[in-house]
Request: fold
Amino acid sequence: MNVAFVDLSAGKIRISKVDEKDERELIGGKGIATKLLLSVPPRTDPFYPENGIIFAVGPANSFRLSGASRMTAVFKSPLTGGYGESQCGGFAPHEMALSGIQVLKIAGRHKKPVYLVVENGGVEIRSAEHLWGLDAFETEDILKKDEDGEIIAIGQAGENLVRFACITHRRGRQFGRAGGGAVLGSKNVKAVVFKRNEEASESHEFEEFLSENVIPKLSSLQKYGTPNIMWVVNRTRSLPSYYWERSEFEIDSIDAEAMLKYFVRRNACFACRVACGRISRVGDVTVEGPEFETLYAFGSLLGNGDLESIIVANEVADRLGLDTITAGNVIGYAVMLSRHGRIDEKIEFGDGYGYIELLKKIAFRKGIGDLLAEGVAKMERLTGIEGIHVNGLEPPAYDPRGIFGMALAYATSPRGACHMRSCAYRPNLAGKINRFSPEGQAELVKGLEEFYAVIDSLVYCRFLSLPEMGMGWDDVARLLEITAGKNYSTEQLRIIGKNIHRMAWKFNRREGIDFGKLPSKFFNYGLGVKDYQRMMEEYRKLDQNDDHSSNQV
Reply:
């Protein structure tokens, strides 16, 4: 694997090889990127030039294979002050894997707006002054015409250092969470263009395995996309609504069936047979989505049953470069502040098109948008009113009061309240484990965190590796043998997963962050303090009992 170090302040680029031992023990993707993040000086302000953002692919991403076009970004988060991480699908990951550069670390700050071109085993820095001020869609359109290749870009939210700005790809794929777009904006980087100079590898055998054993289980995902899960989450009273005051919502107007009215076509990442993406249209607005998390964030969480306004808000957020999960949460928190008289603006639940105007104010830091652009944790410190977040990251659409495993998952995720680090919601909702009991949750969450640390180092898609449905440890070992030419036992892979997860927490702890404290509202029904404490105690014991030093990978 080749790694490119870009120092924007000095205008220098250095290319080197990833150490063979690291490649063996960290695989690629998240593993390599997390180790590189540890070279960022402790307690660095996320917006300082010394902070770095690392984009990385792994051994699976150069293959023409369902689920294999994924990449990771790792950085110190401007939203949480800790470990920042996000993954993105589409076409850029595959293009990067074949560009001759598999890991790209960007540090420093350029004096003027620039974009990077990654191709032929090198990186070039080019002027983006003509792109600064444009939204992410406009930027990608121009660079696609000028450069071709595949593009990731920030919108105005990233330029204006909104702490939850995302990085957009192909008008709907995102490095969504934790503020990676703001890190690029702080460095005056508008976009990165990836251009392949090699041909894709093939594995017909593994594609056949997926087609026979995994993809058939995803038929509802293919028909409805991620909104399909809303029925289950709402039925189990686990769908956060009215800014966490309730756990269910009248979803008929915003569920997967309702979305069919606006459906245009399915969309897929490179070479993927699942094609879970859904293109929707309202009038002259076309967007990929809304995904389930966006339906929650701009819908149930805000008491909004107007699907058309949610679709338009989704498109506006993607254009401007805003993480929809955090955006919905900060607006919900603003509703509470408005009701407490802590802000002058009158913001209410159910005002779908009013939220679109708020998104614009956030992206440009205008008026009340300047406060909302800071995220819930910083707003909380300014107002003294408790908001809903864990270690600075606002939660996704799984209410831990009805899914006990998610309470633990939110607390132990390195990036804060996150459903993707363990996907523990699925075994809980599927009845594989009692979702109202602490029993067995620690072992479940910890095992899944380690599994997905490896998945995110391959880098591979969640939908093809979902608990109980997708790939397991043996399949991952087989895929690594095919793509990396390396043999691993299941136990060796578990050790790798533990080490990578621990490395992320090593970064957090040196920044003063430990396992998260849950908001008091999470204990007002369902989840009890004693149940949560038991899960945390069991998790800590499992963590302390791990001994990696005597194991060879």
Observations:
- The chain has three domains: 2-202, 223-383, 404-545.
- The chain has 22 helices and 17 strands.
- The chain has a mean pLDDT of 97.
- The two ends are 18 Å apart (CA to CA).
